[in-house]
Amino acid sequence: MPSTFFGLTISSSGMNAYQVALNTTANNISNVQTKGYTRQQANRVASEALRVYAKYGSAGTGVTTTSIKQVRNQYYDTKYWYNQSSVGLYETRLNYLQQIENYFIDDDSAKGFSTILNTLFNDMDTLKNHASDVNVRQQFIGSAQNFATYFNSVASGLGEIQSSTNEEIKSTVANINAIAEKIAILNDQINVIEVQGGYANELRDQRALLIDELSAIVPTEVEELPVKNSNHPEMQTGATYYTVKIGGQVLVNTYDYYTLECVAREKKVNQSDLEGLYDIKWEKTGNTFNAGASYMSGSLKALFDIRDGNNGENFSGMAKVLSAKQLQVTSPSMTSIEELTLPETGVLKINGREYEYTGFTYETDADGNITSYTFSLKDSLTLQEQGKVDGRYAEVGTSIDSMGIPYYMAQMNQFLRSFASAFNEILQKGEDLNGNKTDYYSFLTGADTVTGEEFTFDGLDANGVAGTGSNVDSYYKLTASNICVASICVKDPTLLATTEDITGKGGVDAYELIEELTKLKSDVVLYRGGTADGFLKCMISDISIDTQEAKIFNQNYTNIASTIENQRMSISGVDEDEEALDLIKFQNAYNLSSKMISVMAEVYDRLILETGV
């Protein structure tokens, strides 16, 4: 049977419940502008009825506040995190593609390739009319130097972008590790609170913000499962298992987290790569975390795409064992010196294993196309390894379907090798103003980055032996980074050849070689089925298409993110009008409970004082 003052108990439960609801509303209102805050809600249920042993059986005992929980929809969270990785991918890619695009601009604001090329060929026309004039010769040589310097500067700028992305990869990995550690700590703190019956709303908000940040970097999956009592599986302990996966691999497992590390490459993947580019591995196991894989997304993948993107044009072929220390690769993907991107020393990947090579040679057919490469291995292959390698697919680096720094460097190298080869071939047929042959040097050459020695492209190795391959002085050595004009010609313009025979018709003013050179601008196919003056169009076309694609996708995914965020905030965000309405609603309920206490007080007053009970 309830006590005489049972009504007061019921009324006080209402006052307590709506006091909690008002406090929760006040907390929501105070955090209306707090980033990551999730609207909280006081959940109430009717208190357990009291058996009174009367005809009506039992009586209600009021209201009980069971919890104060954040209002959040896991479906919208998952959609948001999935979309964020695409936003991070295209936003980062767009930023770097626009930087690359700036190096190929040729307009009034920047003196670019077309302007420099036109100046070079204009000076050729001037040279035709004054072939013996040393000053005019010097002017032409100066234009040729500007041509080489332009490519040096573009290569240097692209190298800086590659370095920048490489460092950003390192800082991004450090950020992932920091986020993983914070999530693991929060998991511990949340479980400590919730296992005691509470609900860690603010800590859960902090954790969700970290997942928001992580999802823009790498594809992120989250799973939260209740921890059950081992003796009574139907009973929940209040704690949860919280697992975070990135790229399908576990990063956080409740209280444990796994860190990534950046490991500098010992060998280049592309000839024009910077030294020491980072690969990512799991610190504990040493397994590779392939952030640049085609199935990945997020800003980290974008960094790898820009730094390593080769448009799917890495070196590959079929391996054939020649001996324990020699591997031949047939049916190669690169069949000319002009397009060759192999580093002089590097790593062949065959059947999931890596084999370091110290150099290579190549064999050509009657048309000059490369039919096979022979690699000299650093370590001898065992008989077992030979069996696993022979007849297998081999490659250097990885095929990455993105136009990044390696792609644009390779395109410049390919153009320059074709252009310089044709240019030098013409000039080496002639004689200088002194009547000496000019076949002993190359006008457009390159300088060794270590020794500073200029290449002659004579096809000889360091011992003077003719051959092919990485240790031979060939156009393979020429890159956008090292191209220059032969120093002997810069110092002495009289060494420049304009005619094949200085004593023939026209004498020192003959210029038939210069006429041949002028055809290289727009009459001779040199690059991708086009002429020299079409090079920039190809580059601009490539970069513009890639940039425009990134811009469109970035805008699309940003719009989708905005839509999902609006849907998410419609549930979990604090709405000022809704909170104001709740404020009035809970205030009225509180006032009614207070009024009930006043009524009950009058009843008890009459009962006790006037009836003498």
Describe the structure.
This protein is α+β, with helices and mostly antiparallel strands and about 625 residues long. It has 12 helices and 18 strands. The strands form 6 sheets. The protein has a 6-stranded antiparallel beta barrel with strand order 11-12-15-14-13-16. A 4-stranded antiparallel β-sheet has the order 5-6-7-8. A two-stranded antiparallel ribbon has the order 1-4. α2 packs antiparallel against α11. The model has no long low-confidence stretch (mean pLDDT about 90).
Summarize the structure.
The chain has 613 residues and is α+β, with helices and mostly antiparallel strands. The chain has helices at residues 6-30, 74-102, 113-129, 134-194, 201-215, 299-308, 383-389, 405-427, 487-491, 512-522, 535-572, 576-610; strands spanning 40-46, 50-51, 58-59, 63-70, 220-228, 236-246, 249-253, 256-257, 260-264, 278-282, 315-323, 326-330, 346-350, 353-364, 370-377, 393-396, 444-446, 483-485. The chain has a six-stranded antiparallel barrel. Strands 5-6-7-8 form a four-stranded antiparallel beta sheet.
Helices and strands in order:
Elements (H helix, E strand, L loop, with lengths): L5 H25 L9 E7 L3 E2 L6 E2 L3 E8 L3 H29 L10 H17 L4 H61 L6 H15 L4 E9 L7 E11 L2 E5 L2 E2 L2 E5 L13 E5 L16 H10 L6 E9 L2 E5 L15 E5 L2 E12 L5 E8 L5 H7 L3 E4 L8 H23 L16 E3 L36 E3 L1 H5 L20 H11 L12 H38 L3 H35 L3
Antiparallel strand pairs: 1-4, 2-3, 5-6, 6-7, 7-8, 9-10, 11-12, 11-16, 12-15, 13-14, 13-16, 14-15, 17-18
